[in-house]
């Protein structure tokens, strides 16, 4: 328990140091609140038994309930943290470090700011926390949904297949490209040439050098979405250099994050010792608008730390 307490205290102190206040949201939500937000992961949502009225589900994460909370309370500017349990119909026996009930620590910034400032702050805080928890081997991978969508467009992927091909690319951290290509072509009906072109792009990673190279790419530089994403990524990396955190951050085109609500920068922190992803997040500018009766959007960016994996890494190091 001492290790768990130390981890929670370290994280909470960091969140407070950066000016965040804590809020709480219900353990369950209306089923319709959670529907259509998680892509292919929607099948992992726990639905509660219908008791003669509203259909309810246990929360899958802390992000969608937060967006609903902002819309209901007409909040347009907040920096918040939330530490609570979430629930997923995962298969713990099959996947190490996965649970059906586990703690998440979330940090989010909602509101209008200069481009990439909140995004850079989130990455700096994540870097700070993982360093203070002494996870020496971590790496934070960063990408942008707009860059991915731009790549899909210039490679000839039909609009209707963007999300499903995105889910395939998301498997590249655990699966060989050859297997992902087979899934794209045989299961999802993508042309083989389009898959090959995607492969040439998504197997790249680097820093500002890669961003500059892609900005000069004859196809991507002509795509509006990709260009927006690349220009923002360049600003982001310039801030990250000022913060002195680029040693542990990599621009990685394989990173896709399967959740449907991301609209811009996405990132995932990995601890190289077998357990994979320990934290993830990104920008979700359209989510609050889905719950606002007038569709008013509130720009948001944030991340979520999966505490059970952090605990097991810290416990292993303490042995």
From TrEMBL:
GO (cellular component) term, any one: mitochondrion
Catalytic reaction(s) noted: tRNA(His) + L-histidine + ATP = L-histidyl-tRNA(His) + AMP + diphosphate + H(+)
EC code: 6.1.1.21
InterPro entries for the chain: aa-tRNA-synth_II, aa-tRNA-synth_II/BPL/LPL, HisRS-like_core, HisRS/HisZ
Key words, A-Z: Aminoacyl-tRNA synthetase, ATP-binding, Ligase, Nucleotide-binding, Protein biosynthesis
Biological process according to GO: histidyl-tRNA aminoacylation; mitochondrial translation
Taxonomy, superkingdom: Eukaryota
GO molecular function, one term: RNA binding
SUPFAM superfamilies: Class II aaRS and biotin synthetases
Family: Belongs to the class-II aminoacyl-tRNA synthetase family.
PANTHER family: HISTIDINE--TRNA LIGASE, HISTIDYL-TRNA SYNTHETASE
Full protein name: histidine--tRNA ligase
Species this chain originates from: Eleutherodactylus coqui
Phylogenetic classification of the source organism: Eukaryota, Metazoa, Chordata, Craniata, Vertebrata
